Amino acid sequence: MIKAIVLRAAGINCDLETQYALELAGAEAQRVHINRIIQSPDILDDCQIMVIPGGFSYGDDVAAGKILANQIVHHLADRLRAFIDAGKLVLGI
Predict the structure, then answer these.
(1) What are phi and psi of 70, to 5 degrees?
(2) What would the mean pLDDT of 69-88 be, rounded to a whole number?
(3) How confident is the model at residue 93 (pLDDT cuts 50, 70, 90)?
């Protein structure tokens, strides 16, 4: 079975719908907070899909998406590159 992770963070507003859509398509999907992936990046090893949902992650005060983008770039860039290089799928909404 295809396993998928739907990234969660404060302000993301379509993670439940994204999980549901993946499950309708036949994947085993779970919503996982970005902090959990930063603490345990091995979570990505068992997954074939990672989805970064839309919304206003961490609010619109700082610049929607900026904090989440910095977390990904500064904490997960190498792991995300390895994920992509392994032929796994990353989707962004």
Answers:
(1) -65, -40
(2) 95
(3) confident
Cβ atoms of 7 and 57 within 8 Å: the answer is no
- Residue 63: per-residue pLDDT: 73
Q: For residue 5, give the nearest of 50, 39, 44, 46 by alpha carbon.
A: 50
Query: Phi and psi dihedrals of 58, rounded to 5?
Result: 60, 25
Give dist(CA 75, CA 93) in Å, integer: 21
- What's the rounded Cα separation, in Å, for the pair 29 and 14? 14
pTM: 0.89
Cβ count near 22 (within 10 Å): 21
Rg (alpha carbons) of the chain, rounded to whole number: 13
Evaluate whether 51 touches 93 at the Cβ level (below 8 Å). yes
